[in-house]
Each structure stands twice: as C-alpha cells, then as structure tokens.
Amino acid sequence: MTVREYKDGVGQWADDAMRFVVRCGGSRADCEDAVQEALAALWSHRDRVPRDKGKAYLLSASYRSLMQTIRHNKVVQQHSEDAQAMVQTYQEPDLMFDLREAIERSLQVLPPVQRAILQLRDVEGYSYGEIGETLDLSTDKVQVYLFRARVAMRKQLKLMGYDSNNR
Fold first, then answer.
1. What is the CATH topology of the domain spanning 92-159?
2. pLDDT grade, residue 145 (50/70/90)?
3. Which of 31, 45, 81, 131 has the fewest beta carbons under 10 Å from its own?
C-alpha cells in the first residue's frame, strides 16, 4: 500500500473502525485509543498490507487493541479490589504500602524481557505459548526467563527485608 492509498483508506475506513469498536464495548476513550493504535500499526505495516485488505486489517487491529485494553482494565480492576480488601484486613497498612514500593523497585532491576514476561504471566494471565508468540520466544525460554525473574524478585525483596517466611 502506498502512502497515498493509506491516506485515502484512512479517510474511508477510520469511521467504520470507530463504529465497529464502539459497538464491541468499552469506553469512548478506549475505543478512540484502539483505533489510533490500529492506524499506527497499519502505517507501520503499509508495505505488507495490500490496499484491498487495509480495511479488514484496520478493523481487526482495532478490535484486538480494544479487547487487550478491556482485559487489562478488568485485571487492574480486580487487582485494585483485591488490594483494597487486603488493606482493609491488613493490620499494618503502612507495611503494605512499603511492600508495594519494594515490589516496584525490584521490578525495575529486572531485564526488560523478564519484566515483560512477569507482567504478561502474573498480572495479565497469558499462557506461556501466548507470551512466547507475543515476544517471539520459545515456550521453554519463556519458562526459564519467568523462573529467573521470580528468583531475582525474591532475592531483591529479601535484601529489602521482605522475607516470605516471616511476613
């Protein structure tokens, strides 16, 4: 697809994509973000996407982006509710806040690929196969990197005084 075809296609397809994702659900802002991400993806892949497949590409990319956002928001909401429940029942709320900060700091020490795998597996709930496909890694490498990330996290947290045996 040439630049001119891309511009013409965007003018014709962007509204269709927006209507499609709005009907699929999600907030208006999430739908707008999904279409924008899809347009950016189409631009990046314009040399590989034929003009006659552009609209289908845009619709499917918008849908995938919206569904990913909805899944993410659902996980964030669930974790927020879980955290609120823990804070309400936890005897020392300051310790809980400190632990969260310690976890954030220990995450920053990890290499980016390990941090991404840990996020995808433990927070987002993706399978090893999905993570491998997303990050272009074998399933075995995903498992090894995840194991190493968890070991490194445990080690960092232990150095910060958060031992799983006594807290």
1. Arc Repressor Mutant, subunit A (1.10.10)
2. very high
3. 81
